[in-house]
Each structure stands twice: as structure tokens, then as C-alpha cells.
Amino acid sequence: MTDLLYSEEEEALRAAVRDLLTDHCPPAGVLARTESDAPHGRALWKSLAEDMGLAGLLVPEEQGGQGASHREAAVVLEELGRAVAPVPYLTSAVVATEALLACGDGELLSRLASGRTIGALAVGLHTGPATGVETVRLENGTLHGELTGIADAAVADVLLVPADDGGLYAVAADAVTVLPRISLDLTRPLATVRLAGAPGRRVGDTEPAVRRALRAAAGLLASEQLGVADWALAETVRYLKERKQFNRPVGGFQALKHRLARLWLEVVHLRAAARAAADALSTGQDTDVTVAVAQAYAAPVAVRATEEALQLHGGIGMTWEHPVHLYLKRAKADSIAYGTAGAHREALSALVDLQAP
Amino acid sequence: MTDARELRGRTREFLAQHPPASTDRLDFLRARFDAGLAWVHYPEGLGGLGAPRSLQGVVDAELAAAGAPDNDPRRIGIGLGMAAPTILAYGTEEQKRRFLRPLWTGEEVWCQLFSEPGAGSDLAALGTRAVREGDTWVVNGQKVWTSSAHLARWAILIARTDPDVPKHQGITYFVCDMTDPGVEVRPLRQITGEAEFNEVFLTGVRIPDSRRLGAVGDGWRVAQTTLNNERVAIGGMAQPREGGMIGPVAKTWRERPELRTHDLHQRLLTLWVEAEVARFTGERLRQQLAAGQPGPEGAGMKLAFARLNQEISGLEVELRGEEGLLYDDWTLRRPEHVDFTGRDAGYRYLRSKGNSIEGGTSEVLLNIVAERVLGLPAEPRTDKDVAWKDLAR
């Protein structure tokens, strides 16, 4: 049976990442950054990816990585979610890396693993593992077209671009135009990528690479959503113990206690679902079903947790200065990222033979 | 005596001396108790060897492989899960020796006389009175929701012995002989049509003081041992995918395409996902316990299963359409144990309504999670320092 616990090594990794984020990624800093021209935490990325070597967790040691598994990457994502950290970990160290692992491109893979190069798969963030992808035209050896909804493209050094010949092409970021969009999630901004005769190097076939990348993304996103939900619950409980109204701590009112207890229960379930997905990705056992289950469950829980956090914080929850909105926006964007809960349920209906009428 | 290898050897030796095929069932169970292989974590002489509880699995596996008879824990679940640990913790030597062996072998069935019509979730408000007359207590009152009372030889009973102190302080814990004069058991018919439970009327029942468990007035504390052990018993086994309530409805969906609608499809998929996640959660809890890291997650499992069972069985009745308007059998029955997943969809729907009430209502469990797990302030108590006799009832 699936190992659903955290190992000692995983807990040590969590502690190290959390320490770093506590020191270098406070909510006020994240908020200030989103209001600047550079929403990504470049210095934070350098510490995580280069100094701690986390960008290479999924990459084998012989290709310059850590040779760890999705279980460790999931723990990192839990902590990044808990801090709503504005770093391209999911997009570069998971999605682009998984695509390259499918293609077997060792050179680019080791550059991504080092953290010094940031990669982005040029597929819209809303795309699920079972959905078709937009492509650009390959004409006379160069790439032409426009791709929308590309997460973290603004900081990417290399884009992995699907072309109409079925190939996946590595394209240098300075060969394309990246047009930042105003995004719902300020900490994982989207951009449109325009290619006008951009040179690209074919690294492999799009279909298997994208499928593998998006499946890992959907499965591990559940761990990020767990981190987001866990923060929302913990922060709300803390606030409701302090906040007094009607001469009592607000957290003593049964109507609110029951809502928090239900939320706690959902977070407990989400933890099991996210662990199951991370373990299934690492072992290759029953992966499609487990990932679809985790993602069908995770998104509504993370959204509800942040919505409850906002409501239960009262007026302060509606302000720009309180960080709860950063989490709400992340949770809501995550509910669309890599396939909606509905899309994953749809996938399950075929996988577990519960067919539509 | 803590080694798995040694215990395996001991079990095999026992099996050699008492071959299951040629040994009478009761003789075998009694001998197993006397050999300390009944519950290895109990003390020697009381069915155990003082070994770690986790080693019971070693014994059970050896015995199962040899085709040994079991003591039917479903019928004697209340004795095993609730009475035994309480007797072990609070009983006198004499009580332990008298009660534990026939309890474990199933020769004597136990029931639990706790809940009352006026004291459900607020159990400590109970009003059944026990008045001392020399070495005897005279008990009058009414209990309810007593499973196995019609089969039971003994009952664990809590009764009020001092109405002049606050409610938690005036309770005493007894062992009641169900064959005594004044004990009347009446079946309590439920919405399913069957009577799993009973009402028990206690009229001038005389209980000798030697059958008191724990000190006079200390019954609430003793009852906590019983109730904590009841909660530990929930959710112990690994389950396969579709192992619970979701199984029958998924099967119906696959076999009866003519019943499918788009609305039901969406609800079924959502519940299938929730059932699978609940299964992972139960498995994760099991792994935590096995690794010696019990988390607070157990507190929530019953809440989750109650809601899921109700939603899934409700969906199933709808899915069956015209058949959903029918019911399998309204005849009054007295099952020896509860079978949540047996019988028809309509039965499952009605029976699962009890899942959020029995063994602690969902509302009370949510309070427990909020207060003990999340550390939120307790409900204001207006009954705390008031004598029981002055409480509004």
C-alpha cells in the first residue's frame, strides 16, 4: 500500500525550507513585490534552487540533480504554498523538468537542475493532462505564433514550445516577446508569448512530454494547495482565539467552531490525498487515478479554506494589507491550473469505469 | 516476553497441544485464554502475557492459519472493546478473575447501560438513581439505545449516587447482572423496521457493593476509560478501493446504464472521489498508529464516514428510480450485530442516518475537534458548579 507518511528526511527538508521562507519570504515582502515590476522573488529562488539544490530534486544525479522523488518535491511545494512564495518552482523544477525528463534532454535538464536556468513549458496554465495543447507554426526552421496563459514566462530563460509538427522546441527567452498579463494570482503571473521567426531546438515529441509534465503538475499541485489550505486554517484559528467580540473570543462561538472543525477535517483529508498522489507519482503505481482523485479533491478544499479565512477575519480579511487575499487568489487560480476539479472527475469517469449516461 | 519470534513459537506449541480440528470450540478458547494468547497485552493470568499490544497480530495470524475458532468479536464487541479495558483499569483482582475469561471467550455477552432518554450527548446529566442500603445498591431508572441487552449476561452501568453535587461528581460505575429481578429489556424498533437496540428499565434492581467499579462518586472518570476505548475501536482495518458504501452504488451504476442521468453522474463522481480520499485518510491514520505516531486525525474519521455514508446511500436510492420507491422488508427483526452495507439501498439510507448520532453526535464531535485539536475556547458551561438536583431537566 501507498506510503502516506512523511519520512524523517522529508521532515528535515520541510524544516529547512520553512526556515528559509520564514526569514526571506514574509507576507509583507510578497505583497510589496507584487506591487513592483518584478513580482518574482529572484533572491529567494537563488537560495532555494541554487544554494539548497531544490530545483534538481526530480533530476537523476548523473544529470546534475538530487535524484530525489516526487515525495520530496511535494514537501517543498507544501511549504511554498504555505508561504504563497512567488518562485517558479512548480513551473520550472516540476513542469519543465518533467517534460525534459520525458524527452531525455540531458544538457538542458542539468541546467534547470542547477537552478541557474529557469524553464517554462509554453502551455496554458489552465491545461489539464487530458486536454489538447495549442501549438505554434514551424516554418522554414523557425517558430511563428502566439501562446497564451503561460505561467512564470516573465522569469523563464528557456521556453519549451509545442509546434505543429508534433515536436517540442527549446526556445531562448530573448528570442521571443513575453507580454505580461494582469493576472488573478499576483504571485504566479501569466504572460502571452509571441514568436516571430524564433529559432528553436527540437528536444522531443510534445505529446508524451506534455502529458507527463501536466500529470506531475496536477498531482503535486495538490501539495501546494495543501500548504495554502493549511496556512488559511492555522491563521484563522490563531486570529479567532485573539479576536474578541461580544466580550468573548470569537473562536468560542459554536457556529464558527463547527466551520473550523469541518475545515480541519477537509485539510486532514487533503493531506492524505496529496501524499497519495506524490507517492503514486514516485512509484508509478496507479498514478492516473490517484492524481485525478487528489486534484478533484484539492482545489475545492483550498478555495473553501481561503474563502472561509477571509470571511472569518471579518473586515480585515477584505483589506489589501492583510495577506489572506494573496492566498485566496492563489487558491482560486490553482483551482483552474492543470485542469479543474471537474476535468479531473471527467477523466476519472473513464479511468474507473463510471461512464456518463 | 516481548519477542515476536518467541511468541510465534509459543503459539505453535499451543496449537500442537490443542489441535483446532479435534478440540471443542469452547475448550479451545478457554485454553487460549489461560495460555495468555487471548490479548497478549493483558497481564499474565488474565488472558495475556504483558507483551506489547502490537504483537497480538503475530498470534492472530498463526491461529488463523491453523483454522482456530474465533471468539466472534462482533457479538461480544461491547465486552471486548469497552467493558474489558474498564474492568482491567478499575476492577478488583476478584472482579478481573470473575469477569474477563467468560467475557473474552464469548460465554458471557456484555452490554452498556449508559445513555438515557434524558441524557444523550449530555451523558453526565443521567438520572438513573442508585441508593445505598448497607452492602447493596438499589437502582431505579431507564436506559436506552442498549445494543445486545437481550443477549447480555452482564452490563456496565453508570448511575447517580449523589444528586447534591455537580453532575459529573455524583456518578458511580457498576456491573449489573442482567438476569436480576427488576431488569426489564424491551426491543426498541428503529426507522429501518428492525430492533438492533433495546430500552432497559431498572426497577428496584439490587446490586451488591462488590460489583462497583472504582470509587463511589468516581464513575464519570471510570466511564471515560470506557468511552475512550470505544473511540479507539473505530477504523482499524485497511480497505480496498470501493470497499465501503460506494461499492454497491458504483456496481449498480456499471450494471444498469438505463438508470444513469447527468446529474447523478456528477454527484456519483464527486462522492467516489470523497470516498477514495476518506480511504486514504483512514489508511494514513493506520500507518501513523503503526509507526507509533498517533495523530488527532482519528477524531474526525467518524464525522467523515457519517456524512459520506448518508450522501452515498441517499444517491443510491435516487439512482434506483422506481425501485427506490420500494423497500426490502419491514418485518421486525433482532439482528445480533449491525450490518451497515447489507440489505437494500433503502435500508442503507435509513440506517446510515444513525451514523451521525450513535457513538457521539456529529455536532458534539465537531466541538471536540474544535476544542481539543484546534484549541478553540470551550462552550460556556452553565451547569458546571450546579448540583445535579438543581439542573433544569
UniProtKB/TrEMBL annotation, chain A:
<feature type="domain" description="Acyl-CoA dehydrogenase/oxidase C-terminal">
    <location>
        <begin position="211"/>
        <end position="348"/>
    </location>
</feature>
<feature type="domain" description="Acyl-CoA dehydrogenase/oxidase N-terminal">
    <location>
        <begin position="7"/>
        <end position="108"/>
    </location>
</feature>
<protein>
    <submittedName>
        <fullName>Acyl-CoA dehydrogenase</fullName>
    </submittedName>
</protein>
<comment type="similarity">
    <text>Belongs to the acyl-CoA dehydrogenase family.</text>
</comment>
<dbReference type="InterPro" id="IPR009100">
    <property type="entry name" value="AcylCoA_DH/oxidase_NM_dom_sf"/>
</dbReference>
<dbReference type="InterPro" id="IPR037069">
    <property type="entry name" value="AcylCoA_DH/ox_N_sf"/>
</dbReference>
<dbReference type="Pfam" id="PF00441">
    <property type="entry name" value="Acyl-CoA_dh_1"/>
</dbReference>
<dbReference type="InterPro" id="IPR036250">
    <property type="entry name" value="AcylCo_DH-like_C"/>
</dbReference>
<keyword id="KW-0560">Oxidoreductase</keyword>
<dbReference type="InterPro" id="IPR009075">
    <property type="entry name" value="AcylCo_DH/oxidase_C"/>
</dbReference>
<dbReference type="Pfam" id="PF02771">
    <property type="entry name" value="Acyl-CoA_dh_N"/>
</dbReference>
<keyword id="KW-0274">FAD</keyword>
<dbReference type="InterPro" id="IPR013786">
    <property type="entry name" value="AcylCoA_DH/ox_N"/>
</dbReference>
<keyword id="KW-0285">Flavoprotein</keyword>
UniProtKB/TrEMBL annotation, chain B:
<dbReference type="InterPro" id="IPR052161">
    <property type="entry name" value="Mycobact_Acyl-CoA_DH"/>
</dbReference>
<feature type="domain" description="Acyl-CoA oxidase/dehydrogenase middle">
    <location>
        <begin position="111"/>
        <end position="195"/>
    </location>
</feature>
<protein>
    <submittedName>
        <fullName>Acyl-CoA dehydrogenase</fullName>
    </submittedName>
</protein>
<keyword id="KW-0285">Flavoprotein</keyword>
<dbReference type="Pfam" id="PF00441">
    <property type="entry name" value="Acyl-CoA_dh_1"/>
</dbReference>
<comment type="similarity">
    <text>Belongs to the acyl-CoA dehydrogenase family.</text>
</comment>
<dbReference type="InterPro" id="IPR006091">
    <property type="entry name" value="Acyl-CoA_Oxase/DH_mid-dom"/>
</dbReference>
<dbReference type="Pfam" id="PF02770">
    <property type="entry name" value="Acyl-CoA_dh_M"/>
</dbReference>
<dbReference type="InterPro" id="IPR009075">
    <property type="entry name" value="AcylCo_DH/oxidase_C"/>
</dbReference>
<keyword id="KW-0560">Oxidoreductase</keyword>
<feature type="domain" description="Acyl-CoA dehydrogenase/oxidase C-terminal">
    <location>
        <begin position="217"/>
        <end position="374"/>
    </location>
</feature>
<dbReference type="InterPro" id="IPR036250">
    <property type="entry name" value="AcylCo_DH-like_C"/>
</dbReference>
<dbReference type="InterPro" id="IPR009100">
    <property type="entry name" value="AcylCoA_DH/oxidase_NM_dom_sf"/>
</dbReference>
<keyword id="KW-0274">FAD</keyword>
<dbReference type="InterPro" id="IPR046373">
    <property type="entry name" value="Acyl-CoA_Oxase/DH_mid-dom_sf"/>
</dbReference>
<feature type="domain" description="Acyl-CoA dehydrogenase/oxidase N-terminal">
    <location>
        <begin position="4"/>
        <end position="107"/>
    </location>
</feature>
<dbReference type="InterPro" id="IPR013786">
    <property type="entry name" value="AcylCoA_DH/ox_N"/>
</dbReference>
<dbReference type="Pfam" id="PF02771">
    <property type="entry name" value="Acyl-CoA_dh_N"/>
</dbReference>
<dbReference type="InterPro" id="IPR037069">
    <property type="entry name" value="AcylCoA_DH/ox_N_sf"/>
</dbReference>
